[in-house]
Amino acid sequence: xxxxxxxxxxxxxxxxxxxxxxxxxxxxxxxxxxxxxxxxxxxxxxxxxxxxxxxxxxxxxxxxxxxxxxxxxxxxxxxxxxxxxxxxxxxxxxxxxxxxxxxxxxxxxxxxxxxxxxxxxxxxxxxxxxxxxxxxxxxxxxxxxxxxxxxxxxxxxxxxxxxxxxxxxxxxxxxxxxxxxxxxxxxxxxxxxxxxxxxxxxxxxxxxxxxxxxxxxxxxxxxxxxxxxxxxxxxxxxxxxxxxxxxxxxxxxxxxxxxxxxxxxxxxxxxxxxxxxxxxxxxxxxxxxxxxxxxxxxxxxxxxxxxxxxxxxxxxxxxxxxxxxxxxxxxxxxxxxxxxxxxxxxxxxxxxxxxxxxxxxxxxxxxxxxxxxxxxxxxxxxxxxxxxxxx
Length: 391
Hints:
Oligomer: single chain
Number of helices: 16
């Protein structure tokens, strides 16, 4: 009887261990230093700058296995990459990166249009996009902080007035403006509402007392309470731009609704990064977790959790989440530093300069893959530095 019981218990232990390994795989969070994360940031910024065209356009995409450059382009992503390069420039002095950001910016400023009391970027032959102009605004704010001049202050305020013109009474945002009919197009654009909320909050930091925070808060409340339902999402939309906006307005402007929204976003980004840390891409894990996610997808989760980490420093209602937020942010940094293409790996491909410093998904990289991971690692860097000091 005792032997049989022992056998049954042993079998149960083996089955339980198998289920634990198969259904809930262990997380792998590589240890990484602040210096290693910083080196990865430099490589990423260099990749974006090195592969830019003289007209200011960035390399949109590249398949390393086929040695194939994508002919597509996306203007919102152009603005986002330019923003990320200026974000980098607020931390580091690098003439090549700043020159690349300036070329990307100049290509947008050359295509500004004016209407009523506002300014907006409109690539020829396209509608005016809210998201692209919000990210152009963010780019100009970071340029202002990096360079220390107000050369484009009139443009910044003009872009802000464009966003206000797109904002509705309930805080929602129309995503497009038709330059031919000279009217707004009353449909939303994915992520553009969060981008605009963040851009408005950033404007308050540069031009305090002009009402930009009040406008940002109206849209943040819409994001927290109504956007997901209105736009047909079944679950909470993982909006890293909203996380940026919440961090920018700061704890002093968080009522219970906004604080609750911040907690919900922290929960989403935490789960997303925990799931990512369980991915191996081989064996039974491939069936259960698939391959490691797109760099842009992982990067936006890193940006989101990074923004909320900054917010949680001064927000007592997020204090209980802070240890987990920090662990997720550090894990993100470790994963992405490890996944970045090195010079040794790049040497095996026909064009190493298109490979080194980038992050690939099944052999392909897009400019927003590099942008989002770069910005996420910038957010993680102070946490890694603080951990090294405190041990």
